[in-house]
From TrEMBL:
InterPro entries the UniProt entry points to: DEAD/DEAH_box_helicase_dom (IPR011545), Helicase_ATP-bd (IPR014001), Helicase_C-like (IPR001650), P-loop_NTPase (IPR027417), PriA (IPR005259), PriA_3primeBD (IPR041222), PriA_3primeBD_sf (IPR042115), PriA_C (IPR041236)
Names of required cofactors: Zn(2+)
Biological role stated in the UniProt entry: Initiates the restart of stalled replication forks, which reloads the replicative helicase on sites other than the origin of replication. Recognizes and binds to abandoned replication forks and remodels them to uncover a helicase loading site. Promotes assembly of the primosome at these replication forks.
Protein name in the entry: Replication restart protein PriA
Top class in the EC scheme: isomerase
Domain (Helicase C-terminal): residue spans on this chain: 556-733
Native organism taxonomy: Bacteria, Pseudomonadati, Bacteroidota, Flavobacteriia, Flavobacteriales
Gene Ontology MF: a single term: 3'-5' DNA helicase activity
Length: 825
């Protein structure tokens, strides 16, 4: 029967294009009813099925009336949001990222939003043990709650069965909001800063005269007198005195000490808060010194006709103080501020400083936060809450739903950790932040003591404003840098283990003065290589093409690329002789040597073995700040913007490995690392010392570090980059193939090399195998495309994309993982 009587509206069909959180290249089209189309807005989520039976939270990207031509549009399951969770500016930013970094919008979507927004049929949910207030729950919610009592984790499929319905995403979302359940990602600890109680004389007794008075006053209270006398003994060590230590040393109970505090003879304090007060920090911003004032003026002038400026300020010049002035002004205009930091776990100091000024206008976004915490920050930014006026965080913070950014600060802009390596999108957060700034018409300030060659180049080309700040605050001098020739020292037998007599002497002098020391060794573990002295064999990782590193404390061999580990063998696996020896050295070995060399001092170690967990870094940093540690040895983590008052000496145990990396950025990176580590020395009053041990004291980079000659380093590196066709002149796209089967990777890369050479000719480098050519049983091969200054980037990417599609249409190549990395590091 013909049906001509249908309402006209049903002939008008509506469609939405959605972003699925999976790596498919394009958006996908679904059909919606007119009512749904009227209700939906870009940036809302809808539940859709895709593939056989999978359900995803997809994001609406477009609403239109054009049916897809290649497939029949399915209906959506349901709408998940009342309002968009992603705004139009973000979508534009995502499009830029997808196109620039050659990835799918789905990759960006997955990286950008907290995983709680990405419910899908495979998601596993867990019950929140601490939830008990079941009165809050609706009938359906209660059913799920009950099911979770029987079985602590459920998939969304199982929940569908419990409720006997398909549309379960909304009720799950409500249960997450009510904290009844959560999505498991990683375990997170809760942390309370360690508040060690310290003791000092009450301010009434800080002069000598009053001390006499005090002792005579206590003449008849023997125990109390003993406490005071012990206190003065301990005080000669010139270190903060723990209440507990005073009690132990004097043999007097904590109660009696407490009584002395009540009498206002002593007072308790906590070093954390005291450190801040000690410098006279109040809530108002500090007054800038004359050089900072000038820098601020120059930045503001440059912002009149440029959107981006580089603040090139030496370590401890007070860049942070300059940022705060700009932040204050932007907040006064009612705009948001994004403050990017290289690695958030390391920068609790800066967070504390900014919180001290801006208090509850700051939110911190942290990839190690729980899902719920991240959703909370996301929603606060989305709803432009007061406490989300300034957002601090590492690279993924660029994805928050900002609506009116006025300023983006990228602190330590040269840091490699701004670049994401894995998974896609392989973006550089500094560069993506610059684009974000443009979309918001916001200003972008890049700060560093050692700017990346690219940024400095852009600044000298007048693309960015350039502002220099060459003096440390308080006219503290730059540290004095001494190069120690350890080849010579070895020859003269003036080395003990890995320490030259000169370094030991400097260390003794500093310890004598009750000052602290930082030692840098860019390798963790005990020794990177174990070798048989009979046959030369060294134990390898079975999954990766790399030697195992010896960790002495648990007598294990570990792989630093996968999680493989095993006991250190007694005999060589190849020849069977008991002649295994260790070569090279890491932080663990240095720590052990230090314990022998300085038995009366406390030694700390900071590397990724000792800083596991959300607050691993914080604990070590706090202990060092509280001067519980005299000598801190660590890896490059030590280079990241830490500010300690009491460090007088920085030692670099071996500069050579850094300089010899086979990478065009190796020299730049070595310079940055050494200058940054050196910058930790002598940040207040007294001039700091830096001792660099090396086999090659005449290396130009070491000379440049020792004379603090950034400009010379820059000019020389730039020359090399020009000559050998590297950034900032040429752009790089790296192509990586990975597969378990070596021959497959090899065939694939050779095919690809030919195809690329046909188009790009001499600008294709490789194929090459990386230094570690197999990781987790995957063989790896690389190709690099160099893009000359005048070649179109867009066109190059189009051609590359075409070749990639052809490659993937070859049946044997299909299982190979194909990775594109634009502006590769
Ligand atoms: P940078 O980030 O350039 O390395 P910081 O901002 O950390 O330098 O400043 C170094 C130290 O000097 C910090 O302890 C900071 O509090 C202090 N400082 C910098 N500028 C001032 C100022 N104008 N007034 C008071 N203290 C300052
Ligand atoms: Zn391995």
């Amino acid at each position: 029967m013909l049906r001509f009587d249908i309402d006209l509206n049903t002939f008008t069909i509506y469609f939405i294009d959605v972003i699925l959180p999976i790596p498919i290249q394009k958006t996908f089209t679904y059909s919606v009813t007119k009512e749904e189309a009227d209700f939906l807005q870009k940036g809302m989520r809808v539940a859709v099925s895709f593939g056989q039976s999978k359900m995803y939270s997809a994001l609406v990207f477009n609403i239109h009336q054009t049916a897809p031509t290649l497939y029949e549009a399915k209906e959506i399951h349901q709408i998940l949001d009342e309002k968009p969770i992603v705004n139009p500016t973000q979508l534009k930013h995502w499009e830029w990222i997808a196109s620039y970094y050659m990835c799918s919008l789905g990759d960006v979507y997955r990286a950008a939003v907290p995983s709680a927004f990405l419910l899908e049929s495979e998601t596993i949910i867990h019950k929140n043990e601490s939830f008990s207030n079941t009165e809050l729950l609706s009938d359906q919610e209660y059913l799920i709650y009950e099911a979770l009592q029987r079985q602590p984790q459920l998939t969304l499929h199982e929940i569908s069965e419990v409720l006997d319905k398909k549309k379960v995403f909304p009720v799950i979302n409500q249960l997450i909001d009510k904290s009844v359940l959560y999505i498991k990602e990683e375990i997170y600890e809760t942390y309370k800063p360690k508040l060690v109680k310290y003791i000092r004389l009450h301010k009434n007794y800080q002069s000598d005269a009053s001390l006499q008075e005090l002792l005579s006053k206590l003449a008849r209270a023997k125990k109390q007198r003993d406490v005071v006398l012990t206190f003065f003994q301990l005080k000669t060590e010139k270190k903060p005195i723990k209440a507990k230590v005073l009690s132990e040393k004097s043999g007097i109970s904590p109660q009696i000490i407490k009584a002395l505090v009540d009498k206002e003879i002593f007072e308790f304090y906590h070093i954390q808060t005291d450190r801040v007060q000690f410098k006279g920090e109040e809530n108002p911003l500090k007054n800038l010194n004359q050089y900072q004032v000038k820098a601020l003026e120059e930045i503001e002038t440059s912002f009149q006709d440029k959107d981006i400026a580089l603040l090139h300020g030496v370590t401890s010049s007070g860049k942070t103080e300059v940022y705060t002035k700009l932040i204050e002004k932007v907040l006064a205009q009612g705009k948001q501020v994004l403050f990017l930091l290289p690695e958030i776990a390391l920068t609790t100091q800066i967070i504390k400083r900014l919180q001290n000024y801006f208090g509850n206008q700051i939110s911190v976004f942290h990839s190690k936060y729980s899902v719920n915490e991240r959703v909370e920050v996301w929603n606060n930014v989305l709803n432009t809450k007061v406490k989300a006026q300034i957002i601090l965080g590492a690279r993924s913070t660029i994805f928050l739903p900002f609506s009116n950014l006025g300023l983006i600060v990228v602190d330590e802009e040269h840091e490699v950790s701004y670049k994401q390596f894995e998974p896609s999108p392989r973006y550089n957060a500094r560069d993506a932040a610059i684009v974000l700034g443009k979309l918001h018409k916001a200003k972008v300030l890049l700060g560093s003591a050692t700017p990346s060659i690219e940024t400095k180049f852009n600044a000298t080309q007048n693309k960015y404003g350039l502002v220099n700040l060459n003096r440390r605050h308080g006219n503290v001098q730059m540290p004095k840098i001494e190069l120690i020739d350890i080849k010579e020292k070895r020859r003269k037998k003036e080395m003990i283990g890995h320490f030259s007599d000169r370094l030991i002497q400097l260390m003794n002098d500093v310890l004598e003065e009750k000052k602290q020391i930082i030692l840098f060794q860019n390798r963790r573990g005990f020794s990177p290589i174990v070798e048989c002295t009979t046959c030369g064999n060294s134990p390898q990782c079975p999954n990766c093409d790399v030697s195992l590193t010896y960790h002495k404390y648990n007598n294990q061999l570990k792989c630093h690329y996968c999680h493989y580990h095993r006991a250190m063998p007694n005999f060589c696996g190849a020849c069977g002789n008991a002649s295994l020896d260790t070569k090279g050295f890491g932080t663990e070995q240095i720590e052990l040597e230090l314990k022998e060399l300085f038995p009366n001092h406390s030694i700390g170690r900071m590397d990724s073995d000792t800083t596991r967990g959300k607050f691993g870094y914080q604990k070590i940093i706090e202990a060092f700040e509280a001067q519980e540690i005299d000598i801190l040895v660590g890896t490059q983590m030590l280079s990241k913007g830490l500010d300690f008052d009491n460090v007088l000496l920085v030692g670099i145990l071996s500069a050579d490995t850094m300089l010899n990396y086979p990478d065009f950025r190796a020299h730049e990176r070595a310079f940055q690392l050494m200058v940054q580590v050196s910058g930790r020395a002598g940040r207040s009053e007294k001039q700091g010392m830096v001792a660099i041990q090396t086999y090659n004291p005449y290396h130009q980079i070491l000379q440049q570090v020792s004379t603090n000659s950034y400009e010379e380093m820059y000019a020389e590196q730039l020359q090399d980059r020009w000559q050998y066709h590297y950034p900032p002149y040429y752009r790089l796209i790296k192509i990586t193939l990975k597969h378990r089967d070596y021959n497959k990777v090899n065939d694939g890369i050779n095919w690809l090399a030919k195809a690329l050479q046909n188009v790009f000719g001499e600008h294709v480098l490789g194929p090459t195998a990386p230094a570690v050519s197999r990781v987790r049983n995957q063989y790896i091969k690389n190709l690099m495309i160099k893009i000359p200054p005048r070649q179109s980037l867009v066109k190059t990417k189009e051609q590359l994309q075409k070749i990639k599609i052809t490659f993937e249409s070859v049946k044997e190549f299909r299982p190979i993982r194909f990775i594109l990395d634009v502006d590769a590091y």
